[in-house]
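Hey, weird one. I pasted the DUF547 domain-containing protein sequence into the form twice and got a warning about non-standard characters only the second time. First submission, copied straight from the form history:
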Amino acid sequence: MSLGCRIAASLIAVTAFATSAFAAPKAELWGRWEAHAPGGAVTLTHSAWDMFLTRYVRGGTDGIARVDYGAVTETDRAALYDYVTSLEAIPVTSLSRSEQLPYWVNLYNALTVRVVLEHYPVDSIRDIDISPGLFADGPWGKKLATVEGEEISLDDIEHRILRPVWRDPRIHYAVNCASLGCPNLQPRAMTAANAERYLEHGASAYINHPRGARVESGKLIVSSIYDWFDEDFGGDDAGVIAHLKRYATGTLADALRSVGRISDDEYDWRLNDVAK
C-alpha cells in the first residue's frame, strides 16, 4: 500500500473525533482592529517563536508536522510565555498591515501551543473545555491574551480579525488548531518578509496531502475546513474545487479535472503530538 493510501486509510479510520458536532464561527469584523498605520516603519522580530518552532516542530514521514509537547523544557516554556507577553505589549493598531498579519498569526499559534502545554497531556484540543458556556468545546472562546486593553480569544483572532480584515482563504493554512487534521504548524514564524511564501506553501502542502483533498473512485473527499468555512472558498462546491485546482499538482490535479462536486469531508481532531 502506498504512503498516500496508508494516510488516507488512517484518516478514514478516525471516528473518535467526529466533525458533525463542531460549529465553525462566521467571520464577523471587530471594527476596532481595522486600524493600522499605512506608512508604519516598525518591523517586528519573532525570533523567540522561531526558536521554539525550530526546537519542537517535527515533520513526519506521513507529511504531518507534529509538536513535541512532552519535551518542552521549563526554560523554553517560560520563553514562550515571555514571547506572548511581548506581543501583548505591542500597540498593534500602530503597525502596518504587512506587520499586523504575522503579528496575529503568530500570536494565535503561540497561544494555541501555550494552552495545550497548560493542559497536556490531552488526546485532543477539544478536550480543553475552558471556553465559556455550559456546552463549551475546546479553548477557542476563552480570553487568553490582552491586546491594547482588550481581552482576546482565539476565536476573536481568527474570526473577528484575520478572516474579515484580510479576506484571504489562505489564512486557514496559517493558523494551527493543534490537530492532525489541521494544516501544518510551519517550523518557522511568519514575518512580513516571508508572509506570502508562508501562505502559498501552507496552501500547497495541505491541498496536496490526503487530509486536505483526495479523489477516490471518482469521488472528491476534502477536509472539513472547506465545509465549515465554505464562504471563504466561494460559498459552494465549485468555489472550493476552483481553489483546490489552483494549488493541486500531480495525480490530484489530473483527478480534479473530472470532478464536479464534493462527495464527503473529514477531519482528524487528535492532538498533533509526536506521541500520536
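That's the output from the first submission. The warning seems to come from a hidden character in my clipboard, not from the data itself. The mean pLDDT is 93.
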